[in-house]
Sequence to fold (327 residues):
Amino acid sequence: MNPQVSKLISSKVSLAPMAGITDYVLRSMVRKYSSDCLLTTEMISSEALTQVKDVVITKRDDNHSPISYQLSGHKPEMIANCAKYLEQFADMIDINMGCPVKKVTVGNDGCALMRDYSLAYEIVKAVKEQVSIPVSVKFRLGYTTAEMNFVEFGGWMQEAGADFITIHGRTRNQMYGGHADWKKIADLKKSVDIPVFANGDVISIETAEKCLEESQADGVAIGRGAIGDASLIYRIEHFLKTGERLNPPTLEEKINDFKQHLDGEIALRGEKVGLKFVRKFYPFYINGVRNAAKYRSQLVVMEDYNEIMSAMDYILKENSEEIKVVV
Fold:
């Protein structure tokens, strides 16, 4: 194993890249709990970065290391040049070959690259020639159930120079439906010599434990499980090190984290944009509370900071009183 990679993935848990989700603010929140996990940025389009060097999407703090910057695209030279630019921020460059979204794959980016071994190979090779830091690839089981070529594809990526792989246990056509097939990931792990992290449906300590057992992977990449639960990665790390199962956050802790999240997005993007940006996160922070659907429908139309804060305080008060009555 590349010594640099070994150090970057030593906690055995990473934050998976999620477009429009794993921005500077969410990464900072995860880092508040976990000092060691490998953070990954949201997907950065090589086409867009070539045109505009977006300071919001590349922003990081000193304590964000270890951190990987993920690039998407299908033009080897362009991606390599972008990787060289990002090297000043990154500890690792990750290449997206797994995004299933149609607007990405229709342009031959993301998971579409799993249908073109030669092009995928050239992209990894070009990036490796441009940067001195490790290069990783994230992909899926295949484009369709009939095209589960992940084992062969992983071999090509290793041959091209990839130092590390993260694999999502679904095909492109599955999107995020059904269940991630962790057992299939074990086939990839057996066929390559570089580290492999398993991704998909890891939302708790228990699912992380089962995923590692079935996949035989070197670690797990946490995606949606970390939305609304920034401490999840730390709790999994702690369990893997000690065997102790720390409790999930209380509603009060989740709402306090939401307030920090909202304040962070406003500081990053301005109040008007920040208030709208966090709307996608409401369901994750109040999931499971009584009348959650009603609260969500009210919160997503609120445009006043103080009104949102008061609404979250009300949700906490109402549910705290209900818990006291039950006890």
